[in-house]
Hints:
Largest sheet: 5 strands, mixed
CATH architecture: Alpha-Beta Barrel
Mean pLDDT: 90
Radius of gyration: 17 Å
Strand order of the largest sheet: 6-5-4-1-9
Number of strands: 9
Structural class: alpha/beta
Helix content: 25-40%
Number of domains: 1
Number of helices: 7
CATH class: Alpha Beta
CATH topology: TIM Barrel
Distance between the termini: 15 Å
Amino acid sequence: MLWLLLSLLVASITASPVLYRRRSAYPATDLTGPPPKAEWIASYDAAKNAGKIPEIPHSRLVNGNIVYPAEVHAEAVCSWTVTGCFGPRDIFNAPDGLYGISFDDGPLKDSPALYRFLQDQNQTATHFLIGGNVVDNAPIFAQALASGGHIGSHSWSHPYMSTLTDHQILGELGWTSQAIYDLSGGFVPKYWRPPYGDADNRVRAIAEDVFGLTLVGWNQDSDDWCLNDSGGS
């Protein structure tokens, strides 16, 4: 659970016919960087040709650490993972006196208990959802919608985004938005959170200029993700 100090991002979701329900309409839910649709590639090519997507080599994950090629300075590419850098349009603080609550990685089998708890407390939250989980747990996703929470994207398979190629990033973000759109009956997410917070200016640009997604970080972490089943860490 991530406690994000920002004003709650509110969006209404109206019911309309669902476009896809067949599981075969989507990539494998455990596939990292699934192949993007042609229209996403076309939008990417237009943004790239317009100079909106910077030429930044992708990073590598080495012993759990993000590592860029020697010629790349993490500060210059605004790598949050390496330097804690936020982009100029990233959201990570709220106006004075306001706060927001957000949860990552659902929908999962235990998520309904969270939705009920929030409703019992008369609270709403932003849920950054993994696209593969949305498809695998469509009935629970429907509960998230019904609970009144705000829905954001958290990628298709939860990778370190800066380690991916441009087309892999397209697939991660595009298929997540597609699944949310289809299974909600027409809601298009406008906000996303990169898994592990991992993003640089290349990743941000693809999200913003191809999909219209604004990155949302956090400034407080409850660290519950490091607890084991017995409650220890």
